[in-house]
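S1.2 Input.
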Amino acid sequence: MSPIALILLLLAAYLALGVLFALPFLARGVSAIDPAASGSSPFFRVLILPGVAALWPVLAFKWARTRSHGGTP
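S1.3 Output.
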């Protein structure tokens, strides 16, 4: 396997994990991290989906930290 093919495969896997993370995060996690996003429109959630998929490790850490501290970020 060429190095470029390996890099593309790793990038695809990273983004696939990001999309899998984004689905429950956009349903529940975004409101837990940012109370101002509570009650936001579906359009807003679709709009932030690419950013959530790209930054999923950071957001997963913040969401986990919020859940372990009882809802305070």
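S1.4 Remarks. Helices lie at 3-33, 42-54, 56-68.
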